[in-house]
């Protein structure tokens, strides 16, 4: 299952990167979002899947899933959420100011 | 730390106080506080005088980066002492002179003296360092302080130009020298110059011997303004005259000479060393003298003459290095005399050139110009300056009764000896030396007579000239006195200063107890050297008289091909080229920059992945896959691909949201309830946000992208996806360390929590979580600011 999940993560990376390389701001942000999902799945599957019970002590299980990657991913989910929110607002504001959401047309003019 | 360390560091430490003196005691010229330092150091070095040849030199060492073999070790031998005395002695006189030269009211004296002290400390560091790496640090420090001093009047374009030129050339050379030092250090296994000299016999066969030699010579030649690197020195004359006298004639430009002398024990005896130095030195000698004649600016004339004289010293060091060649063991005495001549002339040149620069500074200061065409007939107005110029100038020309005559004769003896005793084709050496000396003689005449004799043109001068204040005259007078007394009593310093210095350059040539024969005489009888001098006087005077007739010779070479314009065009071309290259890849497109990053990741990570043969997998521990999971995985993959192709905003957003919800389902399967919950919440908010943005952002268009770009995008994204998948698969098989998670199973005992993930977040790694909240908070502020605040039309904030 780990291999399957890694491949799923790989498809998420692929479409994420493809979207990030496109011109539209909204697509770029969606790409980032997909990429993050890929990273999360990857982290989980590197650790090994379905090894023991959920890391809750009430379960009284003989073994538990490793809680460290979960804590890591939990942090990552929140951070990527704030990143997405910020980028969306940034895109919104950029569009308001410049009237375009095409990053190719957002090039600085004063470059040498 | 020893007293010697303290002596090197003292100028650096004292710089802290200089601005204080300048600000707090504005009524007293800051120079009076600064002069204490060189004077103290001069006295300190005099107490080490004379260095005994037989006794081992003073060495002190403080470990610095001991693991890399870099120690702050200093040594004081004959050569170092000679330089240290010149640096501090001329330094004292220059500071005294600058007190009168630099206006207390107009100039930023604190900057001036801080740079000057920096230079002095760095220069002492060069000559006293035993460790090559430490020496390199000081070496570059002199380049930097020289840069700062040339650009002292940074408002002037020429100053900045000259400073940049000097910096580029000397730092280029310094870098070459660093490489050379690293090579010789690798070959010898130590950076200590003393130890490298100690193993010179074994070094000669090392593969790095020749490259190290060439690179070190490059450093020496750039620093000492040898042809073709000499072009920075005339432009360095934009510095205030005391600086020109100190850095650009007496001390800094001799650092290269010092380097050659210091490395003669290592490389000397090698024929390449001899040929390169002799040829470059002689060429510089000739070219500098030849170019000096056409200069109309007195300082430029002196600059070219300095170049020429440095070439003279260099070529003597080259000839003298033959003393270490076993093939010439029988003639070693002759070559040893060349080293003596080099050392003696180095001493003389520092003295008389310092004196001349100071006089030119006086002329500039009192008449407002240094242009030869405007000056003339100042003899009666400035009699003391005239006398000083005569003494300095004729010493440079090599006439008796001045010290320059002695070293010039010794120079001729050296080149003649090289011709007679090497049995190689070296006849050009005495000829070139003689021709160059003719030009030298001619420009000395120009310096003396065009300035002080002839007709006086008060209308061409900005100021009414008069003799300089006594304080300004004292330093050149002291130097002029040394010039004259060195002629009459040349042997005062022979055995206590020059002989130990020769011993440093040619160690082991004499048995212990045996001394070099150092007897400098004015009269050798009617020999070739004397005839050469007489010839120089006759032909030189003739050239001076007929300059108008042959002066057009200088216009033969079109300006385009002069070294100076080659440098300028080269620099401009390099700037243009680099701008063009930069603009091809720094094109302002986000797409390009991201592509670089991704391609780089693929190449670097993928490359090392392949090279290290890191791929491997282990299916045995894999969990089973149920049908439900297959469906989930397939759905995610399909949706992910779907987002790429879709053109409707709404569909795309819903697809992205669906991926997020499916991932949270996966988390449930992965036995991660906290993740699943959080992901659900976050995904809901994110989708809402996307929908909000959807309301404001324009419709997604089918992107018009060239097919080539599309393919490259596809390749990059597939590459990244495949690479990360492979790494992920490979990473599963490798458990290098025991997991730390067992510790967290004690969460209840340690923190009273039954949910391990939560315990990690809020207890074990609570600081991380706090900072995470800070990120959230910052993003929140960012969102708020972006939405709420905007520039009003008037430019203020609403």
TrEMBL record, chain A:
UniProt keyword Transmembrane helix, yes or no: yes
Segments crossing the lipid bilayer: 6-21, 28-49, 69-92
Subcellular location: Cell membrane
Keywords noted in UniProt: Cell membrane, Membrane, Transmembrane, Transmembrane helix
One GO term describing the cellular component: plasma membrane
InterPro entries with a match to the protein in the record: CPA3_antiporter_subunitC, NUOK/Mnh_C1-like
The UniProt record lists the keyword Transmembrane helix: yes
Pfam families recorded: Oxidored_q2
Major location (coarse): membrane
Domain of life: Bacteria
Bilayer topology annotation: Multi-pass membrane protein
Family recorded in the similarity comment: Belongs to the CPA3 antiporters (TC 2.A.63) subunit C family.
Name assigned to this protein: Na(+)/H(+) antiporter subunit C
């Amino acid at each position: 299952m780990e291999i399957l999940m890694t491949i799923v993560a790989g498809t998420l990376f692929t479409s994420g990167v493809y979207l990030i390389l496109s011109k539209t701001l909204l697509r770029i942000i969606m790409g980032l979002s997909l990429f993050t999902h890929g990273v999360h799945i990857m982290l989980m599957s590197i650790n090994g899947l379905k090894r023991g019970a959920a890391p809750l002590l009430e379960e009284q299980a003989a073994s538990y899933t490793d809680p460290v990657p979960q804590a890591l991913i939990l942090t990552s989910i929140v951070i990527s959420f704030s990143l997405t929110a910020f980028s969306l607002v940034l895109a919104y504001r950029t569009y308001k100011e410049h009237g375009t959401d095409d990053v190719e047309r957002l090039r600085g003019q004063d470059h040498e | 730390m020893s007293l010697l360390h303290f002596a090197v560091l003292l100028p650096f430490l004292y710089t802290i106080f200089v601005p204080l003196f300048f600000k707090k005691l504005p009524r007293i010229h800051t120079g009076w506080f600064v002069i204490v330092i060189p004077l103290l150091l001069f006295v300190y070095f005099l107490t080490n005088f004379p260095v005994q040849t037989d006794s081992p030199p003073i060495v002190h060492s403080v470990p610095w980066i001991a693991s890399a073999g870099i120690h702050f070790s200093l040594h004081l031998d004959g050569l170092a002492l000679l330089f240290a005395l010149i640096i501090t002695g001329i330094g004292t006189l220059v500071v005294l002179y600058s007190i009168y030269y630099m206006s207390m009211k107009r100039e930023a004296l604190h900057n001036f003296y801080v740079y000057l002290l920096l230079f002095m400390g760095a220069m002492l560091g060069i000559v006293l360092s035993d460790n090559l790496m430490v020496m390199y640090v000081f070496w570059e420090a002199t380049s930097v302080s020289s840069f700062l001093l040339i650009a002292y009047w940074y408002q002037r374009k020429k100053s900045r130009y000259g400073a940049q030129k000097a910096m580029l050339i000397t730092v280029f050379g310094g870098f070459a020298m660093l490489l050379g030092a690293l090579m010789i250090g690798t070959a010898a296994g130590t950076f200590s110059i003393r130890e490298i000299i100690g193993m010179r016999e074994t070094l000669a066969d090392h593969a790095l011997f020749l490259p190290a030699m060439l690179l070190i010579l490059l450093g020496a030649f750039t620093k000492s303004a040898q042809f073709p690197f000499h072009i920075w020195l005339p432009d360095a004359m934009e510095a205030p005259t005391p600086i020109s006298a100190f850095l650009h004639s007496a001390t800094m430009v001799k650092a290269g000479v010092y380097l050659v002398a210091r490395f003669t024990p290592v490389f000397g005896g090698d024929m390449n060393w001899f040929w390169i130095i002799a040829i470059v030195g002689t060429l510089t000698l000739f070219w500098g003298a030849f170019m000096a004649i056409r200069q109309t600016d007195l300082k430029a004339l002196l600059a070219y003459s300095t170049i020429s004289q440095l070439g003279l010293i260099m070529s003597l060091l080259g000839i003298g290095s033959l003393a270490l060649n076993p093939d010439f063991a029988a003639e070693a005495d002759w070559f040893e005399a060349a080293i003596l001549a080099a050392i003696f002339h180095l001493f003389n040149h520092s003295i008389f050139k310092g004196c001349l620069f100071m006089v030119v500074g006086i002329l500039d200061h009192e008449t407002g110009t240094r242009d030869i065409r405007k000056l003339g007939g100042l003899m009666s107005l400035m009699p003391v300056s005239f006398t000083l110029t005569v003494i300095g100038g004729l010493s440079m020309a090599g006439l008796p009764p001045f010290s320059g005559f002695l070293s010039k004769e010794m120079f001729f003896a050296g080149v003649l000896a090289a011709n007679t005793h090497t049995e190689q084709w070296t006849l050009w050496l005495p000829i070139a030396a003689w021709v160059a000396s003719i030009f030298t003689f001619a420009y000395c005449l120009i310096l003396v007579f065009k300035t002080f004799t002839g007709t006086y043109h008060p209308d061409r001068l900005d100021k009414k000239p008069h003799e300089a204040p006594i304080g300004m005259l004292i330093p050149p007078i002291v130097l002029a006195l040394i010039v004259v007394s060195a002629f009459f009593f040349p042997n005062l310093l022979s055995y206590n200063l020059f002989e130990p210095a020769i011993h440093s350059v040619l160690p082991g040539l004499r048995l212990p107890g045996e001394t070099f024969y150092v007897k400098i005489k004015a009269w050798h009888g009617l020999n070739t050297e004397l005839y050469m001098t007489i010839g120089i006087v006759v032909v030189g005077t003739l050239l001076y008289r007929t300059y108008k007739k042959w002066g057009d010779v200088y216009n033969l070479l079109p300006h385009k091909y002069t070294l100076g314009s080659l440098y300028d065009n080269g620099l401009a071309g390099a700037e243009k080229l680099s701008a063009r290259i930069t603009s091809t890849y720094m094109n302002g497109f986000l797409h390009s920059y991201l592509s670089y990053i991704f391609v780089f990741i693929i190449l670097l990570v993928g490359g090392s992945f392949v090279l290290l043969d890191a791929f491997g997998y282990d299916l045995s521990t894999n969990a089973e896959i149920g049908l439900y999971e297959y469906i989930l995985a397939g759905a995610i993959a399909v949706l992910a691909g779907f987002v790429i192709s879709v053109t409707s905003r709404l569909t795309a957003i819903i697809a992205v949201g669906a991926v997020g919800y499916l991932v949270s389902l996966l988390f449930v399967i992965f036995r991660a309830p906290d993740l699943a919950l959080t992901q659900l919440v976050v995904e809901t908010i994110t989708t809402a946000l996307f929908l909000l943005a959807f309301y404001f952002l324009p419709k997604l268009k089918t992107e018009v992208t060239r097919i080539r770009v599309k393919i490259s995008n596809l390749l990059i994204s597939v590459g990244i996806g495949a690479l990360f998948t492979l790494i992920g698969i490979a990473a599963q098989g490798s458990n290098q360390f025991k997991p730390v998670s067992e510790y967290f199973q004690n969460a209840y005992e340690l923190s009273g929590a039954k949910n391990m993930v939560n315990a990690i977040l809020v207890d074990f790694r609570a600081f991380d979580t706090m900072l995470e909240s800070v990120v959230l908070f910052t993003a929140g502020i960012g969102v708020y600011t972006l939405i709420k605040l905007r520039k009003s039309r008037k430019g203020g904030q609403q």
